[in-house]
Amino acid sequence: MMQEEALQGNETIEQAIAALQQSATPELLAHALTAIRRRIRENGQFVVAVEPGPAAQMSLKTVQTPDGRAWWYAFTSFEEEMQGAEQVQSTFMADIGKLLETALTVPEIEGIILNPWHRTLMLDKTLIQIILPESPVVS
User: What angle is formed at CA 131 by the lines to CA 125 and CA 135, rounded to 5 degrees?
Assistant: First the structure.
């Protein structure tokens, strides 16, 4: 399956997450965050799941963690999306930087779970602010 051009390069993020899963060290976390920052500079995109909302508007789908907190979720590739038991119905491509910036402004969510089924990285708002150093501080 041909990967969308805007997703090419996201395998560096997947590799960094895989290394982090093998050995959860601050250095490997920093490496994963740097890989995401680099893809933002390259105008990379993620695949995000959407659901129909009121008045024909689309909204990003959320997943609830066992502690009851809500997160958006996104995928580095269509292959990662297909890893899950639940088939995501509708997706679209989103600019990584804009997606992270928007997540900081939505009080109802904790952040973004990247690749929730396989090579998973939970980007809470603190990590998103580390990735986006120029972003305003959100409490």
Answer: 70
CA nearest to 18, candidates 115, 86, 84, 113: 115
Contacts of residue 78, defined as CB under 8 A and 6 or more positions apart, other chains included, come to 1, 3, 4, 7, 47
Sign of CA dihedral 135, 115, 81, 110: negative
Span 24-75, pLDDT tens digits:
999 999 999 999 999 999 999 999 988 877 766 678 888 899 999 999 999 9
Q: Of 116, 131, 126, which Cα lies nearest the Cα of 82? A: 116
Residue 96 neighbours by CB under 8 Å, 6+ apart: 36, 39, 40, 44, 45, 46
70, two tokens: 């809500």
Is 0.85 topped by the overall pTM?
yes
